C-alpha cells in the first residue's frame, strides 16, 4: 500500500485483512504510520499474499523504501477528497525506479464526496500516471468504513498476483532484514521478505556484511509456524548465535558465501523529472538498497553535474559502509540535505573499480551493462530454463558462431540432441527432486518410490517436461536415483516398516505363517494387531512386493513359505495333468481356498487350464 499520508492506507489494509498495522503508541496517538506494517491477506495451496503498509509521511520515506523493496504488486492509494499530492508523486517515482510493474489504483474515502468529484480525481490521477508504469493500471473505488468495493479489490489483487510468474526458490537464500526485535524466552527475531532461495528450520546462515554465523531456530510465515520459507514470502526467523544488539535493519541473512560484500558499485541510474537541485560530481547521497540505508557519493565519468536528463546515466556509487548486493538489484538514491529523491536504478557490477573520467570508461560500463555473451546466454536460460540454438539466437541477439563458441563452456549443458540449459539449473532440479523423494520416503516408507508421472507433474509448473525427463534419467544413470517399473526413488532408499509398527507387523506375519493354508481375511489379521486402517493397502502391497505374502484373491493371503510348500506338495502328489478333485486329495483344502489357489497358479504361469483339467508348465 503506497500513497500520501492520511489517504487511508492503514484503514484499507485493515478492511482487507482485519489487521491493524499501526502497532506503536505514537502511531495510535498521531494516527500516522511510522514503521512498516504487515498483514496476511490471502492463502491457498498455490499462493500466499501479504500486505505491506508503508508510511506515507515524508519523514518516513526510508521505511517506505524498505517496505517496497521486493514486492510484486502496488496498490496506489489516493483519497477521493484530496486527489494526487506531492508525496503520491514521489512514491510513484520510487516505485518506478524499483522496477515495480504491476499496480492497482485505489480511490479511497468515496463516501465523503459527490460522484462527479470522483471523476475529477480519476482524471487527475490519469494525468499524473501518464508515462509511468502505472498508466494502464485498473481503478477501484473503495470506502474502508462502509466496506464498499473492498471484496472486489481483494479479488482483483489475488487475480493479478496469480497471473504473475512466481518467485524463484532455487539457488542461495537471501533475506534483507527490515525488522529486529526480541521475544521473551526465544531471543532475537528478524523479519523480512525472502528475496530469493529458501530457508529451512535448523539451517545455518550468515548475517552479512558482518559475517556472523547464526542458526534459524524457528520460522514463521504469515504468523504461522513453518518448516521453510520461500522466495516472495514474508518470514520471521528466530535466530540463535546472535544478540539483538548485533543485528540491524539493512543487514542481510544469506545461506551462501557467494554473495558479494562491497562499497563500490557500478550502476545505471535515471533521475526524477522535476529534480529541484543540481546533482554535482561527488555529491553526497543516501543509497537505499534492499533494506539498507547507506551514505556515499555519486561519481560520474561523462559529466560534472546533472539536473534535467531523461536518459539512463552510467556511473558509480562509492559508499561509506559495506552492503550485500548482486547484479540486477534495484536501489534509490536521495539527497540527505535538503532532502529529496534524486533517482534510482540497478546494479551493473557490484565489484566496481576506480576508473578514469572519459568516454572509454563509459564504453566499458556499457559493455558490462549489456553483459558478456556468456552472461547473456545464462540470463536467457535462467529465465526460460531450456532453449534450442535458434531460440537462443533470438533471445540473446548473438550470431551463431559466437553463440556456439559460448555454449562450449562447462557452464552449459546440451541435452536431448537440441536443447540447452544451465548446468547449475540442472543441479538445482536434481537437488529439488532428491528433496522431494526423501520427503516422500519419510512419509511413505512402505512404498517402492514416487510414480515418475506424479514427480514430473509436481515440477512441471516451473520447468519444461523434457528438461525434467533429462535430469531424472541422468540421475538414474549417475546412481543418484533408481527406478523400478514406473517408480523413482532415492538411490540409497529401501522400502521398510516404520519402527513404531515393526513389532505388530512381525506378529501379523507370524500369525499368518502359523495358520498355514486355512487363513482368515488378511484385513482381520491387520485389525487384530492394531495396525491403522489407513496403512492397510500400503502394508499389503509392501508385504507382497517383499515376497512375504502371496494373494490368492483380494481377501485371502497366504504366507509365501506356506504358498511355496503347497505348490511343492501339489506338484509332488499329482501327475502332469490333474483335476480339482486330484488337487483336493493332494492338499486338504475346502473349495473357498482351492479355487483361488488354482487360479493363482494359472495367473503365475505355473499351470494352464484346459477345460476341466490343469497342465503343469514347470
Automatic annotation (TrEMBL):
One of its GO terms (cellular component) is cytoplasm. It holds the Pfam family WHD_3rd_SelB. One of its GO terms (biological process) is selenocysteine incorporation. Keywords: Cytoplasm, Elongation factor, GTP-binding, Nucleotide-binding, Protein biosynthesis. It is found in: Cytoplasm. Its main location: cytoplasm. It comes from the Bacteria. Residues 1-165 form the Tr-type G domain. Translation factor necessary for the incorporation of selenocysteine into proteins. It probably replaces EF-Tu for the insertion of selenocysteine directed by the UGA codon. SelB binds GTP and GDP. This is Selenocysteine-specific elongation factor. It comes from Mesobacillus campisalis.
